[in-house]
Write a structure and sequence with these properties.
By secondary structure, the protein is an alpha/beta fold. The chain is 46% helix and 11% strand. It has helices spanning 31-45, 69-78, 82-98, 115-118, 149-152, 160-167, 173-179, 191-200, 208-215, 225-235, 241-251, 254-264, 268-281, 286-300, 305-315, 329-334, and strands at residues 7-12, 15-20, 52-57, 62-64, 104-108, 111-113, 125-128, 133-135, 184-185.
């Protein structure tokens, strides 16, 4: 055990600073971390001395690698409400960030996946660095890209979001900037100087933050999306996983062959579920996506693939999940059914 707080929240200058502080776990979110972030953000929302929120992760490897998947697995096995409570409060946090009235700057230098995406991509500013590795890898554990994935992924250009959601593609800084997932780039070696500048700056002017971020920006390099975008859009269109895989199998190029191999390693049910989530989410409000996320996440605990995925990746680490056959369409549709009144998504005051 450690006495180190999992979240370090403090005011420095005109900045409300939040540091995710579980570096050995790549700053993966716990329930307590979500509650602490909510507490800090709500306290600073109406505090005129705080002009900007800045969020980073301790250590050099990860901004935030996701949620505490093992605890969700154990809660589902036990049949208690701990997983539901975590998701409800995590999604409340995502919604608070989405609607936050002040600039929210996430410094996503390092691994940024799953829950880490949820506490960054919905804010106003996302600053990628040389170590950025951005992904929604949930289909690899029999799950779906929650934390608002069904909101932001369908709103990316073309079928980039569908490709990311189904394959769990890992994007580095150039791709993040090209896709609009990152609003800015700062070389990793300049991150400490950027934070110091933010903490010492007068941020009361509307343009001051943008000017400061621009001062520390650079050229992230060429994006692979300039080469693969046409292939992505052609392959990942439509509402059928079978049609997508058939198009990829028939493409005959090296990139498509790699995507086929990746898709074949994912949970067939999670692929169908994710595609349905993304197609529905493209027409939903943020709050309705959060309601959908809680319903779908809860449904995942009723099957087998989530537990098998966690076993293969987290528990036994053999990386060889034994997936069940794909759920049929009627089963997938059940994932979107409302929960009972006690478990339906509810929101914090002033966010929904």
């Amino acid at each position: 055990m450690t006495d180190e707080p999992e979240i370090i929240a403090r005011k420095i200058g005109q900045v409300g600073r939040i540091t995710l502080n579980r570096p050995k776990a790549l700053n993966a979110l716990t329930h307590g971390m979500c509650l602490s972030m909510i507490e800090a953000l709500e306290a600073w929302r109406d505090d005129d001395s705080v002009q900007v929120i800045v969020v980073d992760g301790a250590g050099e490897k990860g901004f935030c690698a996701g949620g505490d998947i093992l605890k969700l697995h154990d809660s589902g096995k036990a049949g208690d409400d701990q997983a539901w409570l975590f998701w409800r409060d995590e999604y409340r946090l995502n919604t608070l960030i989405h609607h936050y009235p002040k600039p929210y700057v996430a410094l996503i230098d390092g691994i940024t996946m799953g829950g880490g995406v949820g506490v960054s991509v919905h804010g106003s500013h996302r600053v990628a660095g040389d170590r950025t590795m951005f992904a929604m890898p949930e289909t690899g554990i029999g799950f779906h890209p929650d934390v608002g994935g069904a909101y932001f992924l369908p709103r990316l250009a073309g079928e980039i979001g569908t490709w990311m959601g189904l394959t769990g593609a890992r994007l580095k800084a150039p791709d993040c900037v090209a896709a609009g997932l990152a609003t800015h780039y700062c070389p990793s070696g300049q991150y400490d100087a950027l934070v110091e500048a933010l903490e010492n700056a007068d941020l009361t002017g509307e343009e001051s933050l943008e000017v400061l971020l621009e001062e520390f920006s650079g050229d992230p390099g060429d994006s692979d999306l300039s080469v693969t975008r046409g292939l992505i859009d052609a392959a990942f269109a439509g509402d059928s996983v079978d049609e997508i895989t058939a198009r990829i199998d028939g493409a005959g190029d090296g990139w498509s062959a790699k995507q086929a191999k990746i898709l074949a390693s994912k949970s067939p049910t999670a692929l169908k579920l994710t595609l349905a989530c993304l197609r529905k989410g493209g027409d939903l409000s943020f709050e309705d996506v959060m309601r959908q996320d809680l319903r779908v996440s809860s449904w995942c605990l009723t099957g087998t693939d989530f537990y098998e995925g966690v076993r293969a990746v987290i528990i036994d680490k053999d990386q060889s999940p034994n997936w069940s056959p794909a759920a049929d369409d009627s089963e997938i549709e059940q994932a979107f059914a409302p929960l009972d009144d006690a478990h339906e998504m509810s929101f914090l005051e002033d966010t929904a």
